[in-house]
Amino acid sequence: MRVLRSAGDERKYRVFTRKDIDSIPALSSLSEKFRTSMKAVSAVLPFRVNNYVIEDLIDWSNIPEDPIFQLTFPQPEMLDGQDFRKVYDLVARRAPADQLKAAAREIQQKLNPHPAGQLELNVPMLGDERLEGMQHKYRESVLFFPSQGQTCHAYCSYCFRWPQFVGREEYKFASNETKTLKAYLRRHPEVTDVLFTGGDPMVMK
Questions:
Q1: How far apart are CA 144 and CA 197, in angstroms?
Q2: Which three-class secondary structure state does DSSP give residue 130?
Q3: Run of H or E including 87
Q4: What is the value of pTM for the model shown?
Q5: With a cut of 50, which residues of the chain have pLDDT below it?
Q6: Nearest one of 90, 111, 98 to 39, comparing CA atoms
Q7: N or C, which end of the chain is more exposed by having fewer CB within 10 Å?
Q8: Positive or negative CA dihedral for 45, 50, 53, 55?
């Protein structure tokens, strides 16, 4: 069940990732097999959640059906059955990290993280310069991936931007070049919408 908090309750924000799965108190009542499944999926796809989601939003008496749990915690169905079994076996027998990473990379590649040739076909040009970190697929809309927006407070299990978060630079769209964005927009008056995307904006200190 959820924990009710008073209006004056102040807690320090805390993030949990794959390495924390065994130390999340709410997961301790779940079977080792269940936790191993989450470790297996999160070896391939990004996993990040925070204490607010864990303590206030998830009904732990309704696991795994709780919708917020389904939204934020890795689910076996997120991978093809054969791929899931392969990586589950590696995690269960505590295979070397490089072997697990290689298997994860192979599966990620099969998931076609950037369909329709978007790494090449949708990157706009400003003269002879490729504007990395931008996409212009539809006439009126430009997508801009700010480098400050390369993470989220929690990763959603349905997220199609997962390639941004798995540590593979060749998959990532990111740019700090707002000057080139403005220059591109000046040359393309047909653009009416600019979408800042890629993750939640983070405050840079």
A1: 6
A2: strand
A3: helix 81-92
A4: 0.74
A5: 202-205
A6: 90
A7: C
A8: positive
